[in-house]
Design brief:
The structure is a homodimer. By secondary structure, the first copy, chain A, is of the alpha+beta class. In chain A, 38% of the residues lie in helices and 22% in strands. The first copy, chain A, has seven helices and eleven strands. In chain A, the strands form three sheets. The first copy, chain A, has a four-stranded antiparallel sheet. In chain A, helix 4 crosses helix 7 and helix 5 packs across helix 6. Chains A and B meet through strand 4, strand 5 and helix 3 of A and strand 4, strand 5 and helix 3 of B. Chain B binds a DNA duplex through helix 6.
Chain lengths: 245, 245
DNA sequence: CGCTTGATTGATGCCATTCAACATGGGTGG
DNA sequence: CCACCCATGTTGAATGGCATCAATCAAGCG
């Protein structure tokens, strides 16, 4: 298991103030799928579940397992992954705070879920979650919206995996991260993923990621700061690389 | 536009008996997302839409367009595709009778939709469909189920695109088709896709598809019958190839 | 300080693409 | 009904991009 090792603590998501177990103080209550519930309904839902803490590297669900649990991510970053019989792995999704994980209304978990940083979840037994959802249209609607968005993003990613070159993949990835992490003033970003994980997201090898990165650095398109830091020096150039040949 | 040409009529889905415009006689009424609606509700929904016929090669929606329509597929096969700026195309999904197409609850169509065979749709303006769905939880639930399944299948396909070899891809594809088309007694299937389309599904080139196919034929794992026909002679061998190296 | 883990760099080989020629077959019109 | 034609599919040779194998470098940590 390549990733069952603690991640570098220096780059973990900073702790949020949500020690409480009530929804009233929850930091993701307005973004998560429970956002549209009445307070009373949300509290009822809350009673079905529990808050759990994960260490970086811990796996919550395994590919092919019975689907027993679902959860909201309160804090942290996790990866969704599948692998072939002989051990080749592909990351099929990366989820962040306020995202939803697990397979509701289904019996099989189609991919593993593993914490990339320390994380906190709002965890529900799938059965009771399903039951609650069936009685609350607003919840299903949010879940549908989110699933449709996921599907769109996943399909767009297929184009990258199948048709883009290593260089295009890395450029696309860096821009995506810049957008997602809302690069601070100077366009410096701290990657939440190791080189191996980047490779597993892009469907290439760790060596190729490294080579492309240093190549981009040599061309003064980016700058590399330590292991996880990247400064985007020339976004238009990256954009051009990301799109066409 | 590579596929805007009529497909070989010999392999089109055989005509179904559903000339009526009422739901009562609809051939997909028990599989489509409207299956759980009361008769009266289904009729109401029906009044919002209309039946349309497509010729093979016609495109119903273009990537990036405003999302104006959604539809149930009554008959035929269609492809969902995206492409890079410089024309590389990737098929991100193939849909069959009773499947749902279009992007409800969203403003952009994330991929094009093109008929591979002649087809018939039950078409709705997105706005009125969305409104109807908001008032009918059963419909949203079916749609959610379907979308979750799509997402699972799409993610599994990512592993193929990113990590499998050409040989593994072709083997996987043939098995998938065998399953989907419920190969008749002798395990003979009529591919609904041209070599080019198969290549676009698998993320490889047409020549590579061709080479792998003839290779498999030489090894007596399959037999090729004309352009579209394939007989699966040795499924276990295919299965072994599809999975690991 | 050695040890471990993650990242970079280098050398080599292979698989899939590319470019190109050729075959096939289904459809059409004389 | 056959000859022709064009789209589709197959086959070949050469190239190149990425993987693989392997060594080196750079950090963090006990």
């Amino acid at each position: 298991m390549r990733f069952d090792v603690a991640q570098n603590a220096a780059f973990q998501t900073p702790a949020r103030s949500c020690g409480s177990r009530s929804c009233a103080a929850c930091v993701v209550r307005d973004q998560a799928i429970c956002a549209d519930l009445k307070d009373s309904d949300r509290d009822a839902l809350s009673l079905l579940g529990r808050r759990v803490t994960l260490r970086a590297g811990q796996t919550v669900m395994w590919e092919g397992d019975d689907s027993m649990i679902v959860a909201n991510v309160i804090e942290g970053t996790l990866k969704l992954a599948t692998s072939t019989g002989d051990g080749r792995e592909q990351i099929v999704g990366v989820v962040y705070a306020s995202d939803f994980i697990g397979r509701p209304f289904g019996v099989r978990t189609p991919h593993s879920v593993t914490a990339l940083t320390d994380a906190r979840l709002c965890l529900f037994p799938r059965g009771s979650f399903d039951g609650f959802a069936m009685r609350h249209g607003e919840l299903q609607h949010r879940l549908l919206q989110r699933t449709l968005d996921d599907l769109d993003r996943t399909r767009a990613w297929m184009l990258l995996l199948a048709r883009k070159t290593a260089r295009e993949k890395v450029a696309t990835f860096l821009l995506d991260m810049g957008r997602r992490l809302r690069a601070d003033g100077d366009d410096v970003i701290a990657l939440p993923l190791s080189r191996q994980q980047i490779a597993d997201v892009l469907g290439i090898t760790i060596e190729t990621v490294s080579r492309q990165m240093t190549e981009l650095k040599r061309e003064a398109v980016i700058d590399l700061i330590g292991r996880r830091g990247v400064r985007l020096l020339n976004k238009p150039a990256l954009q051009a690389m990301a799109e066409a040949a």
